[in-house]
Specification:
The chain has about 300 residues and is of the alpha/beta class. It is about 30% helix and about 15% strand. Helix 1 crosses helix 6, helix 3 crosses helix 4 and helix 5 runs antiparallel to helix 8. It is globular and about 65 Å long.
Amino acid sequence: MACWIMGKTMDAQIFDMDNIDVAWCPGCGNFPILMILKKALAELEVEPANLVLVSGIGQAAKIPHYFKTNVFNGLHGRALPPATAIKAANPALAVIAQSGDGDMYGEGGNHFLHTIRRNPDITNIVHNNMVYGLTKGQASPTSQMGFRTPVQVNGVFLEPFNPLAVAIALNAGFVARAFAGDSEQTKEILKKAIKHKGYALVDIFQPCPSFNKLNTYQWFKEHTYYLEDSHDQYDRNEAFKRATETEKLSLGIFYINPDKKTFEENIGTYQENQQPLYERKPDIGKLRNLIETFKIAD
């Protein structure tokens, strides 16, 4: 967990960048997600200096460019490995890995699976617009069957990837889904995800008005509903059942497993020495001895 600055009232504008050119289309769902995330972090009183945003490639991956904080912008599909390493090197930081559905579930699909297994104490926000927006409208892993694009001219014939069901099947620590059009509900889900100790997935439905004319704001309003207050977030079987619904798509927190040890706790680095890795000095003697073991005998 990050170190929250208590007793202060923070304004979301603390994360605003000045004089920047925002490269999103009018009506893009990334705009509300950017605003909602800033508000969530401000209400949690996370200082910009204690936050790192990590992303890959894509329209959603541009969000760190519009955030006044620490940023690591990496390769396509490769946001999760550096996010894991950053948290391990400095556990006091709040680390958020965020990108689009293509970046996280397509190019980054293998990293997605194994990051869940490792359970680093990071938040994984996925902007799910069911299309590749940056490269002009190809089908993504979450595109619906029948969805027509300039490449899939006869319609998508693959069953869409279900990130929530996969995450629950792998016993992820926190699994939720939200909608960019519901700012208050999404903000509260994000706050709980960021506070969760361990890996937390928040898949956020968002429209792409330029390249996805099917999954609009109105479509999401008509095809989603919120899990009931009576839903047991600790019942893995029930969570999996709700995650596989297709007639209408559930929103809310599906599953929480509070008992999993984090990656940082399991690797043993901090079991005897609580000093962050980035502050530790290398032992030159041990390093020299290690190098000597690789020398080829005369």
